[in-house]
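[Meeting: bench + compute handoff]

Bench side (C.D.) handed over the final construct sequence. Compute side (W.E.) agreed to return the predicted structure before the next meeting so the bench team could plan truncations. Sequence as handed over:
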Amino acid sequence: MDKITKPIINGIRKTVYEHTTQLLKKQKKMVDVLFYDLTTIYFETSSQDEIRDFGFSKDGKHQHVQIMLAAIVTTDGLPIDYQEFPGNFYEGHTLIPALNEIKNHYNIGKVILIADAALMNKINLQELDERGLKYIIAARIKNTKKVIQQTILHPADYDNISNTKNNEGDAKDIIKAKIIDSGDGDFLIAYHSTKRERKDRYDRQKALEKIEKYINSTAKSKLTGSLRKSYVKVSKNSRIEIDENKLSEEEQYDGFFGLRTNISDPDPLSFLISYRGLWQVEQTFRIAKTNLEIRPVFHYSSRRIKAHFAICYMALALVRYTEFILKTHDQYIPYEQLHLMLDKMRKVQIIDHKDILFEFLEDPPTQLIPIYRALKLKWPKKFSHSLNL
């Protein structure tokens, strides 16, 4: 791992980027949308240094030091780049350094950046505007100006953009939207989803059921976890109570959410579909953490930590490339399922008294045949032998 130096790591990242663009070019696609997100990777230690530090852990490992790992992928989930940040780094401050890194190393033209609400702060939006970058970023509608909140909650001017039905023909989800001028040079697209409204109501009801166990309790220390809600208050005699006014205020936002964009004449439906593509980054992190077991990390020097992530990045790129090629051949097979099928490819080796090696291939899953063809791999022989060992 000590031989994987910074120039080699930069070469790895550049090679992955170039292969991604080549694959897209073959399918007559281009890098026009970038999905950006972060996760945390924890270490089996509590020792801090310039990159490992304590912070908010997305894995719930708050007792361990961590680093923040940013990933940028295309609409097909193909990797563009990654970058490490110290474990205590503020998530909203990672975007501009990551974009600078891309600009310095790769030739990316006009793209639309899609990211979650954690990256939506005034500095980031101004910086993206100044760079001429277009964005679609989730908005925290409860944190917007009062006049905008009132406009969001007012039912007028909403247009139906989607109406999906279940197998019985009943309405499954009705989505309405309207475009609001934010007053800051961009737009806020407000949405209301009946499916999301039902979920918000259900989640709050479950939270209320947990809270009710502690109603009238005098233990202030219990005001943690599920009890940390805006509509929970502690009375003067230190009793836990429900703030009915705050609860009513919370209920009026059921089903509402928003997207912020600086694209003129935005199309609410296409933007919503684009934003929902963020699952590609989430799936990338899931593959890295679950299948490639990128964490916990046991290295202690920053040099080896970065080498570890470079190796994992290469493995991740191969996984995503395989998935992409299979999809282009109408083979929609999740990585986990493919791994299980490949695990059944077994050979039995026998060496006879003349030192001749015989190999027998056990019956492999027949579903692998079109997969091998799509990946241009030679199908192994059922029986083979070698005279020279």
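W.E. noted at the follow-up: The chain has a mean pLDDT of 87. C.D. will use this when planning the next construct.
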